[in-house]
Write a structure and sequence with these properties.
Layout (H helix, E strand, L loop, with lengths): L2 H4 L3 E5 L4 H12 L3 E6 L2 H15 L3 E5 L5 H12 L3 E6 L14 H22 L1 H6 L2 E6 L12 H21 L4 E6 L7 H6 L2 H4 L7 H11 L5 E2 L3 H13 L2 H15 L4
Parallel strand pairs: 1-2, 1-4, 2-3, 4-5, 5-6, 6-7
Helix pairs in contact: 2-3, 2-10, 5-7, 11-12
Length: 265
């Protein structure tokens, strides 16, 4: 079955303009889904909307703004109410790098707001029609940081752990009702956010994955498993840190690694 037949004709992608979000838009458009695209970056979003519409012959609706803003959420709701929404991809996210107490509390709360509160709001508001129709899909973006405590990225890691556990919970609760859910757990990925945070030597590492294979792995896992770690090296690292090593040892390794990489923060 095609994606429109299997899930429905429209997909909502939050955090759509660049990086993984933009790649999700391209790969979903290639599969024939029309797109409601939400992001902060107006120029990039408008350009992408035009690009995928012309290249793949799909319909696009672009909304510029912060999904945590009530007015932006209402704008999305008005569009969603007029279409059959078949898929939600929640890619919006915020990370803060540095020792936890060195970062103002307000900044930590912003991470929780965009990574958790807004994600839950979107899901709770827009998934009930999928459940009622008996078909649909949800893709949530977690992180390797969500597998284990990650010094220098404490709040981000915590929110991504919640994302992973929520996705796996909903995978079980909704699969009997025809709605597929998957958590995508990327490792280092070549996105604008990663390039901004990571030191030059890390950005150039061969272990940094391009966005295409990460998105393809996430979509391939829909309907098959509750979560997926794209990339063989990432899967090995994930197993090593989260299952094979004692927790104390694994967190210690993460701390040493992160302090070495981000010693200036």
């Amino acid at each position: 079955m095609s994606y429109p037949q299997r899930y429905g004709p429209w997909a909502l992608v939050v955090g759509a303009a660049v990086g993984l979000g933009a790649e999700f838009c391209r790969q979903l458009a290639e599969r024939g889904l029309d797109l409601i695209m939400v992001a902060l970056e107006k120029d990039e979003l408008d350009t992408l909307a035009t690009e995928v519409a012309q290249r793949y012959g799909v319909r696009t609706q672009a909304i510029t703004g912060d999904i945590t803003d009530a007015d932006v959420l209402e704008s999305v709701a008005r569009l969603v109410d007029d279409v059959e929404l078949g898929m939600i991809v929640y890619n919006a996210g915020l990370s803060v790098c540095g020792r936890w107490l060195d970062t103002p509390l307000e900044r930590h709360l912003e991470v929780v707001d965009i990574n958790v509160i807004a994600m839950m709001t979107v899901l709770h508001r827009f998934t009930p029609p999928m459940i009622e129709r008996g078909h649909g899909a949800v893709v949530l973006l977690s992180s390797m940081s969500g597998l284990i405590g990650t010094p220098m990225y404490g709040s981000y890691a915590g929110t991504k752990a919640l994302t992973l556990n929520l996705a796996e919970t909903l995978w079980d609760e909704w699969r009997s009702q025809g709605v597929d859910v998957v958590a995508v757990i990327p490792g280092p990925t070549d996105t604008p956010g990663y390039r901004a945070d990571a030191p030059r030597q890390i950005r150039r590492s061969p272990k940094v994955m391009p966005v295409g294979p990460v998105v393809a792995a996430g979509l391939a896992a829909l309907g098959k498993q509750p979560s997926v770690i794209p990339g063989r090296a990432n899967r090995f690292s994930g197993l090593l840190l989260s299952r094979w090593l004692p927790r104390k040892k694994a967190v210690g390794i993460m701390g040493e690694t992160m302090r070495e990489i981000y010693s200036g923060k």
